């Protein structure tokens, strides 16, 4: 056995043993124990005319991964609801009111430390209408819009390169020997 003073040090032996134990422990278990970041959802519920607030409606969220549910208190006189402390993730939304129950067919992403705002209007016999600011995104796009996008520009560059390559091949091999 080596009689070097390095190997006789109890502090060094303890340090190496502790380092080995820490490296072999699953860090994932420690990470799961940390509190998860939460966000919040707030908005208004409107009647079918998209102006009259709906009172006493309850908004429910269901996580699409683990089926965990959150719900708001009844909406106030202005139709406003708030759901605080929502775990980060994707959720589907439903609204329960005296007029009926409504479910959305798309998901809502809740981000940590952020307040998401979503106002909806409920129409009988139809899914709730999401009220958005700005454009509705339903404008029809022409072929010119495609060629203004990065994918369209890449398509044009590729087409030009293939054409130039075909022209060079059709002229024959350019060689100083032949």
Q: Which terms summarize this structure?
A:
9 strands; 4-stranded antiparallel sheet; alpha+beta; Immunoglobulin-like; about 180 residues; 5-stranded mixed sheet
Q: Could you please describe the fold and organization of this structure?
A:
The chain is of the alpha+beta class and 178 residues long. Among the domains are: 38-131, Immunoglobulins (Immunoglobulin-like, Sandwich); 142-171. Helix content is 30%, strand content 31%. The protein is built from five helices and nine strands; from the N terminus they run H-H-H-E-E-E-E-E-E-E-E-E-H-H. The protein has helices at 5-8, 10-24, 27-33, 143-148, 150-170, and strands at 38-46, 58-63, 69-71, 80-87, 89-97, 100-110, 115-117, 119-121, 129-131. Strands 1, 4, 7, 8 and 9 form a five-stranded mixed β-sheet that branches. The longest helix has 21 residues, at 150-170. The radius of gyration is 31 Å and the shape is flat.
Task: Work out the helix count.
Answer: 5
What integer is the average pLDDT? 79
- The N- and C-terminal alpha carbons lie at a distance of 77 Å
State the major sheet. 5 strands, mixed
Query: What is the CATH third-level topology name of the domain at 38-131?
Result: Immunoglobulin-like
| H/E element order | HHHEEEEEEEEEHH
Could you tell me the strand content as a percent range? 25-35%
Q: Can you name the CATH architecture of the domain at 38-131? A: Sandwich
Share of helical residues = 25-40%
User: How many runs of DSSP E, i.e. beta strands?
Assistant: 9
Find the CATH superfamily of the domain at 38-131: Immunoglobulins
* Parts with pLDDT < 50 across at least 5 consecutive residues: 133-138
* Cα-based radius of gyration, to the nearest Å: 31 Å
């Amino acid at each position: 056995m080596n009689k070097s003073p390095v190997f006789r040090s109890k502090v060094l032996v303890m340090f190496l043993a502790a380092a080995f134990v820490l490296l072999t422990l699953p860090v994932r278990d420690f990470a799961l124990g940390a509190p998860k970041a939460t966000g919040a959802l707030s908005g208004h519920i409107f009647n079918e005319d998209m102006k009259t607030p709906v009172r006493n409606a309850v908004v429910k969220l269901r996580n699409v991964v683990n089926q965990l549910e959150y719900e708001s208190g009844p909406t106030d006189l202005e139709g406003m609801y708030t759901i605080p402390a929502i775990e980060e993730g994707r959720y589907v939304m439903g609204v329960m009111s005296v007029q009926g129950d409504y479910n959305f067919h798309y998901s809502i992403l809740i981000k940590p430390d952020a307040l998401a705002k979503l106002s909806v209007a409920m129409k009988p016999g139809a899914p709730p209408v999401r009220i958005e600011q700005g454009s509705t995104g339903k404008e029809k796009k022409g072929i010119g819009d495609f060629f203004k996008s990065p994918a369209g520009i890449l398509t044009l560059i590729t087409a030009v390169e293939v054409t130039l390559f075909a022209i060079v091949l059709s002229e024959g091999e350019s060689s100083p020997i032949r």
